[in-house]
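Rather than argue in generalities, we have chosen a single entry, letters for residues, whole numbers for local backbone shapes, without further comment.
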Amino acid sequence: MRSREIFEEIRNQKDQIFGLRMRLSLLVAAELVICILLSIGANSLFTRMSSTALRVPLIVGIIAFGVIFCFIVTSLISKWFSDPIKKMGKAMEKIADGDFSARLTTKSKIKEIREIYSGFNMMAHELGSIEIIQSDFVSNVSHEFKTPINAVEGYAMLLQDCDGLEEDQKKYVDGIIVSTQRLSTLIGSILLLSKIENRSIPTDQSEFSLDEQIRQSIVGMESVWEEKNIEIDADLESVKYYGNENLMIHIWDNLLSNAVKFSPYGDVVTMRLKKANGKIVFTIEDNGEGISEEAQKHIFEKFYQADSSHKQEGNGLGLALVKKILALEDGEIKAENIDGGGCRFTVILKNKTA
């Protein structure tokens, strides 16, 4: 039965006589009545007792009984009311993190709890469906755009080689090539991210040199950091790693590109790779403006850009892609600001070997 039908069935059920509100009211009323009876009984006993020595143990006994009774009542309230709320709170955290597979189950006979849980499951199902539709739509549209954009780029490159072009015409052609290359990069990132999310990407695992792969990334992006006269300070320990080599290269490319993008002209980007406490730790630091506290909460989300003015080039997919790849590799990433300015990204991987 679908989640919406279950929700409607529970909501249309006849209200219980002893629902959650009635049970809580009865528990509180019972606690008050017993407290009153204890007070009356204690007062009657004290009136009849002439011996002070007997009064002290009696007072202690009454207090102990009251404490035990209150503890039992509180435990019942926690079981019927607080525990389901805590359980739902944990499920809501998963939804907030983008895990729409979270579902709630309960054996409770209380209608209110079953109705809330069923409503939550219906919400999670609908959100998951929307996410799938959105992801498929973006993926399909990107795939359809890829071929014509490649064709435009190819024709523009042919025009670039033509003789007799005026200066303005050359600028226009160069602009077309740059724009199509940026679009191709965006589409490639969207398609790769879609494949990772849908688990439709090959999961080939092999042992390779992680430090050598990072060096290849530095060399491959030489034109990017040389354009801003950036110096790369890389101290990379020799590390062998067992994982998806084709995917891992995207991590270093995106992190380096990000660091160069936000570094001042002529500055230094620092990269370190080492083994520590049985883990592989990679850090990359820049001396830019850093990341605001609010932006740190969202930088690994798709299409999020901390620079809302879009002064810096980017599509908001690089760090999301890094996060997804690391999740596949059972790794993690965190971002933090450096005292004195700049930002540090830290990648932590398990020390896996073949």
Observations:
- The mean pLDDT is 78.
- The two ends are 45 Å apart (CA to CA).
- Residues 135-197 form one domain.
